[in-house]
Amino acid sequence: GGDRQAATEAFGSASECDIAEAVKTAQALANEGRRCVACEARKRLDALPIRAAILLHAEVERTERARATASAVGPPDCVTGRHAAAVEKLLKSVVHQTGGTAFLIEFHTIQSLYQRSVLCFAEAREWADAGLKFGPKEPLLYLTAGMAEESLGAFRVGADTPASDQGILIQNRRNAGLDRADMVSRAVERYSKALTLNPVLVEAHLRLGRLRHGQGKADEARRSLREAIALGSGRFLYLAHLFLGQSFETEGDLEAAVQEYRRALVPEPGMQTASVALANALVRQGKRAQGREVLERALADSADRRFDAYWFYLVGNPVVGEALFARLLQGLPR
Asked: In angstroms, how far is CA 4 from the centroid of its own chain?
């Protein structure tokens, strides 16, 4: 229940020796406490604020990375620092605390989403896979693993790719050890597994539909996207209609595409991606005046500066990751 900023600053100024000593203490208690359930050593282990320490070390790591990369160019700095190293060591101790497994599953899920949001796609995949060791039947971990692999497989490196982006993509794929097509196939497998465990997981239906479309499997893609439409709301409903419209447009059914783009704008009015797609489809139908009207309306609506969910579809929104970390910290025992 203390001051979070003060605690974060204290962790940030801790020396290597201080961090090593704290980790050593936690490991020693974990070694004693894991052998029993109600013994004194287990009580001391459960009382140790290891989870809070993990989250504070992780916050310092994120803060230091953001500061270091604010003015950097080229591939993202995905190399872990001393606080990230402390997190990985403390995670081995928290598993022996009461309720530790549930914390580990949630932490690995959030950490995967965060790594993806800072373009460290290979690391995002590793965090999700590590989490699956604690929760092999957790659909959200299969979803986050698939999201990392979808990001790894999404981008082509070509002559028109900026040098900085080429570095990001090549580094991530080399670290993951798989090529683009393998990544897409693996993402499909992850989303399918997530849906086996949770058939109403909207985002898995949405992402599976988009990838099936990219694989040229139109019927399967539309089935998945229609499931997302039936189950979803807000940004998921927006994206599902958007992707379904793209599927129809690819096959030359402009009227069906126009209908889906219009439906996409119902839950999220004025979104730029759907507005541009709708205007383009209208122009292709010869309805230039209607297309211009759609774009003018979108430009007028853009003044509120709302984020289009499509912008973050392949990379994730860092704000979301921070909010999830904050929620996890607030949920710790006081």
From this structure: 25
Of 216, 222, 156, nearest to 183 by C-alpha is 156
* Model confidence band, residue 49 (pLDDT cutoffs 50, 70, 90): confident
Query: Which among 234, 228, 238, 236 has a CA at the least distance from the CA of 205?
Result: 228
Asked whether 44 and 18 are in contact (CB, 8 A), the reply is no
What is residue 207's three-state secondary structure?
Answer: helix
Question: CA of 321: how far to CAs of 40, 135, 156, in Å?
Answer: 37, 20, 26
> Mean pLDDT across the stretch 200-222?
96
What distance in Å separates the CA atoms of residue 55 and residue 5, rounded to the nearest whole number? 12
CA quadruple 107, 110, 112, 114: dihedral positive or negative? negative
Which residue shows structure tokens 């989250």? 55
Residue 52 clears pLDDT 80, i.e. is over it: yes
Other CB atoms within 10 A of residue 92 CB: 13
Alpha helices, DSSP H only, in 251-287?
254-264, 272-284
Token couple for 85: 């190293």
- 2 C-beta neighbours (distance < 10 Å), count: 9
Cβ 58 vs Cβ 121: under 8 Å = no
